[in-house]
Amino acid sequence: MLFLIDYENVGNAGMKGYDYLDMQDHVVVFYSEARKNMERRILEEITSSSCVFEICKLCKTGKNALDFYITSRLGELIGEGYEGISVIVSNDNGFQAVRDYWGNLSSKRRRVLLSSCVEDGIISGNENNERTKELRKMRESLTIGKYYTAYRERMRIRSVLLKLFEGTQYEAMTEEIQNLVEERAETSKITYLNSLHLFGRKSGLEIYNKIKSCEELWAKR
Fold first, then answer.
1. Alpha helices of 166-187 — where are they, by DSSP H?
2. Using CA atoms, how far apart are residues 33 and 35, in angstroms rounded to an integer?
3. Residues forming a β-bridge with 32
């Protein structure tokens, strides 16, 4: 994806999602003397993501000057053969005209999206890849009360497992064992087989027998 970022307009807030950039992306940050600083963590993450990274500083101030820079660079890149999704990151509604032109009027039809931040642009792009799926999951709306109830149950299970395996050779495997317990397999046989698969025949059997016989572990499930 191509991200054309109106940094003068959106600032650091518009960079949200920078940690999901990868080598298939092209990022161009347009800025001016009025807003020339960006958080170190953002810059370092962008440059380590292996994406194509450019900056473009406004030469002379003027009304909508950076907007013209952005639209010019977009046309330049499409003219050079870019055919992917483009995202203009800005809160300026004037860019809707750019989206409409490339989507409806140009002989070279291209998807140009408008977004207030990088993350929104990735989601709007609706690509069939892991980062889009992960971001959608992370932004899923959850009921706070239900989430907290599930959280307390996880903490209870962890506490029980820590005591159950304390001093054994499996003490360092508590997290993996908890994942096994929380899988909520349909039958105990499936839990047994999963334990053998995860930890090997001997260890898996010992772990399974230990968690199966622990009444406190299953008390509230």
1. 174-182
2. 5
3. 35
For the beta carbon of residue 210, count every other beta carbon within 10 angstroms: 17
- The per-residue pLDDT for range 148-169, each reduced to its tens digit, is 999 999 999 999 999 999 999 9
Instruction: Determine the Cα–Cα distance for residues 165 and 173; give it in Å rounded to an integer.
Output: 9
Q: Say whether pTM exceeds 0.90.
A: no
Looking only at the bridges linking them, the beta strands covering 26-31 and 112-115 are: unpaired
Tokens of 82: 């870019």
For residue 208, what are the CA distances in angstroms to 118, 122, 203, 213, 214? 45, 42, 8, 9, 10
CB 131 within 8 A of CB 27: no
Q: Which H or E element spans position 199?
A: helix 188-199
- Which two three-digit tokens encode residue 51? 């994406």
